[in-house]
Design a protein that fits this description.
This is Iron ABC transporter permease. Residues 1-23 have a biased composition (Polar residues). The chain crosses the membrane at residues 38-66, 86-107, 119-138, 144-165, 177-199, 227-248, 268-291, 303-324, 336-353. By secondary structure, the protein is mainly alpha-helical. The chain has one domain (93-358): ABC transporter involved in vitamin B12 uptake, BtuC. The protein has helices at 15-21, 31-54, 62-70, 77-111, 123-137, 143-167, 174-198, 202-210, 218-237, 239-246, 249-254, 259-281, 287-299, 303-325, 336-358. The chain starts with 14 loop residues before the first helix and ends with a helix.
Length: 359
């Protein structure tokens, strides 16, 4: 009997064919952990919202909060406090936290830069400088226009930072991108402070430098919600492409991804999210640094899970930071930016040191 000298060939219809059809299936991710993270994060967020709405100078019970939300009576003072002051404030925290978290995740994925954050890369400073121009030269400008100016300021800052980081020999690297962002932030902050002193707009700019959501009202949420909702939906739609970019541009192009349009769309989403958030909460950094890193540790490197997890974790972080801001030294409020920086600065130094060792 003659034995065949040919070894059996693997079937192309099996796992290898599936991997070719879906190159993301081998990406390290934890779907069950991701779902659990998002669900638990949402439960924690709901609890934080309930505590934040009921806690304040006037302690209000949960039953009163329930009645004020679902059976509002404008003649009752506790209902007015909840509906006009506390509820828009805490919902603003949720929207701002989700915006910063997702913008940071997209920036880190597109640039493969673990230090990327809208605050560290100058976008927040650009939006703040645009607001300073508005307060100095166009006082009384409606809030809808302030958001548009914030978009423009953040967009111009992004262009300048990427241009500066790309000028050096060797091209754009994470450290050069960070240095360009820090330099531009210092410059624009100095310009903003100069406008503040010369035009005496210190009171208008105080909220931005301190960072906080105390002045958030329903009109603010009504204007910013459509922008943020569209941008978040776009981020989720773009998540698969961001995952491919995070593997490296050569790999992404090898898998058929057109990186140019993806980066352009991702940059627009980041600008919309960062501009909207800064127009409400002011100079708050590190949310977009912390939330995506925690999300990646929990759910893996698939941005189809990282982006929604970053949104939830960012919302939780800002909501509880605002709650802490009201409890550290009552009846005064501590700026949210300062509290988040207590966590963000040591974490940033750790990442920067790790990045330096790996260069």
């Amino acid at each position: 009997m003659k034995l065949s000298t040919h070894s059996p060939q693997p079937r192309a219809t099996g796992a290898s064919q599936s991997a070719q059809d879906n190159p993301l299936q081998d990406i390290h991710s934890r779907p069950r952990t991701a779902i659990a993270t998002i669900v638990l994060g949402l439960l924690l967020l709901v609890a934080g919202i309930g505590i934040s709405v009921s806690f304040g100078a006037a302690d209000i019970g949960f039953l009163t909060v329930w009645d004020a939300i679902f059976h509002y009576n404008p003649d009752l003072t506790p209902h007015q406090i909840i509906q006009e002051l506390r509820l828009p404030r805490v919902l603003g925290c949720v929207m701002v936290g989700a915006s910063f978290g997702v913008s940071g995740a997209i920036m880190q994925g597109m640039t493969r830069n673990p230090l990327a954050d809208s605050g560290l890369l100058g976008l927040n400073a650009g939006a703040g400088f645009a607001l300073a121009i508005c307060f100095a030269f166009f006082p009384g400008l409606p809030y809808a226009y302030l958001i548009l100016f914030s978009f423009v300021g953040a967009a111009l800052s992004a262009v300048v930072v990427f241009a500066l980081g790309s000028l050096a020999v060797g091209g754009l690297t994470p450290i050069r991108l960070l240095l360009a962002g820090v330099t531009l932030t210092a410059l624009l902050t100095a310009f903003s402070e100069g406008l503040q002193l010369y035009y005496r707009i210190g009171q208008d700019m105080a909220f931005w430098f301190a960072g906080g959501v105390a002045g958030t009202r329903w009109i603010h949420l009504k204007i910013m919600f459509p922008w943020i909702a569209i941008a978040l939906a776009g981020a989720i739609a773009l998540s698969r492409s961001i995952t491919l970019l995070s593997l490296g541009e050569d790999i992404a192009k090898g898998l058929g991804l057109r990186s140019g349009p993806v980066k352009a769309a991702g940059t627009i989403i980041v600008v919309v999210l960062a501009g909207s958030a800064v127009s409400v909460v002011g100079a708050v950094s590190f949310v977009g640094l912390l939330a995506p890193h925690v999300a990646r540790k929990l759910v893996g490197i698939d941005y189809r899970w990282i982006i929604p997890a970053s949104a939830v974790l960012g919302a939780v972080l800002v909501t509880f930071a605002d709650l802490a801001a009201r409890t550290v030294r009552p009846p005064y409020e501590t700026p949210i930016g300062a509290l988040i920086s207590l966590i963000g600065v040591p974490f940033f130094l750790y990442l920067a040191n790790k990045e330096r060792r790996e260069l």
